[in-house]
From TrEMBL:
GO cellular component, one term: cytosol
GMPS ATP-PPase domain segment(s): 120-309
Record's keyword annotation contains Magnesium: no
Protein name: GMP synthase (glutamine-hydrolyzing)
Keyword ATP-binding in record: yes
Species this protein is from: Solibaculum mannosilyticum
CDD domains cross-referenced by the UniProt entry: GMP_synthase_C
């Protein structure tokens, strides 16, 4: 690894990702690790220049106040303790609320005490990952879950550069993709990029597994487990497949919970993987935030229309068709989402809004259609802006645009008689509804 590293130990802070991003913005690499990291685990991390003991409101676990291990205190590394009554020499109380003051503290620690170098950049990251991928994979083959989204596309580019023809991409249509997406993935990756792409239509298989399942966590785990089973079946048709490539990124890991951090939601590629999975994972983006993934894609030479493509969750429309999924409501969701994307594009919002989509919940309301009572679903519009997907603000959409979208959805999509606009930022909401 070419980059110096600052390790953040999670002792119950809610600011771990903020501090990690602050340090990376200074040009120094950082990772968040559990508070009870062992001497061997700490020693295995490359180029560690210092450790931040980041305490906070979740520091008391089961009535016991947690602390870093003696191995950390005896490591000889510079230590910075914040909001943490431990054995470290420095204790600054809480992090300064002002960004400038907080950055001054970090600069003094990172550069003056730790003597870290500003060598965190995408060129070094890519070079490191190529070396790590080649070391991990050797002469074996990798199966990549290629959704066509930003994360999996960047992983594909990295793997192609690292191992070339040892990569086989599998695009699974689980019936939960947006309108026209399966066809687009095949066109771009197979016909234009010449990737070794296997297309699997597993719509009936996934929707059958999801019948009558309303709990969002169960849906995510079913989708994650079924993905692995499909890949295992495809791998058995090929020779030498021992690895599964995934577009897991850092927010997926953080939001799925750690020993002291509360879980927001499990991600299908983190909390939904079966214990008896037969693959070893290759996840070269797992320590990157979303904006860093895009920067990596640009550095790899991917086109802007791929790098800045709107994010789409692995479970797809399954977490936007709220409650137990039915095929008719899923189709109403797919069509309303297509109208929203079309109208945003016409209004020049496609490049301005980070993520936008519709949600169709599992309840109905009374309306009037063709001079008669109707009892149909609402479609909820969600449009947010964010840098790293950890927080999000609401985009203020012109009223005429919303009126046009409402007119089209209520008149063109069977089963929808209301259109609503979600005004909730993250936090307290999440970007997705499930």
């Amino acid at each position: 690894m070419q980059q110096d590293m600052i390790v953040i130990l999670d002792l119950g802070s809610e600011q771990n990702t903020l501090i990690a991003r602050d340090i990376r913005s200074l040009g120094v690499y950082t990772e968040i690790h559990p508070h009870d990291i062992t001497a061997d685990q700490l020693g295995a991390l490359p180029n560690v220049r210092g450790v931040i003991l980041n305490g906070g409101p979740n520091r008391v676990v089961d009535g016991v106040s947690i602390d870093a291990s003696d191995a950390v205190y005896q490591s000889g590394l510079p230590l910075l303790a914040v909001d943490h009554q431990g054995k470290a020499d420095q204790n600054l109380g809480s992090w300064p609320q002002e960004e400038e003051a907080r950055m001054d503290v970090l600069k003094q620690f990172v550069f003056d005490q730790c003597k870290a170098q500003k060598n965190w950049n995408m060129e070094n990251f890519i070079a490191d990952q190529i070396d790590l991928i080649r070391e991990q994979v050797g002469d074996k083959k990798v199966l990549l879950a290629l959704s066509g989204g930003v994360d999996s596309s960047v992983v594909a580019a990295l793997l192609i550069r690292a191992i070339g023809k040892q990569l086989t991409c599998v695009h699974v249509n689980h019936g939960l993709l947006r309108k026209g997406e399966p066809e687009q993935v095949v066109e771009v990756f197979q016909k234009q990029m010449g990737a070794n792409l296997v297309y699997v239509d597993a719509t009936d298989r996934f929707l059958t597994k999801l019948e009558n399942v309303a709990d969002p966590e169960k849906k995510r785990k079913i989708i994650g487990a079924e993905f692995i089973r499909v890949f295992e079946e495809e791998a058995r048709k090929l020779d030498g497949i021992q690895f599964l490539g995934q577009g897991t990124i850092y927010p997926d890991i953080v939001e799925s919970g750690t020993k002291t951090a509360k879980m927001v939601k499990s991600h299908h590629n983190v909390g939904g993987l079966p214990e008896d999975m037969q693959f070893e994972l290759v996840e070269p983006l797992k320590m990157l935030f979303k904006d860093e993934v895009r920067a990596c894609g640009t550095a790899l030479g991917l086109p802007d229309n791929m790098v800045y493509r709107q994010p789409f969750p692995g479970p797809g429309l399954g977490v936007r068709c709220l409650g137990a999924i039915t095929r008719d409501r899923l189709e109403a969701l797919r069509e309303s989402d297509a109208i929203l994307r079309e109208e945003f594009d016409k209004a020049g919002l496609a490049g301005k809004v980070w993520q936008y989509f519709t949600v169709v919940p599992d309840f109905k309301s009374v309306g009037v259609r063709d001079n008669a009572r109707s009892f149909e679903w609402p479609a909820i519009i969600r449009a947010v802006n964010t840098v790293d997907a950890m927080t999000a603000t609401i985009e203020q959409i012109d009223w005429d645009v919303l009126a046009r979208i409402t007119q089209r959805i209520t008149h063109e999509v069977p089963g929808i008689n209301r259109v609503l606009y979600d005004l909730t930022p993250k936090p307290v909401g999440t970007i997705e509804w499930e």
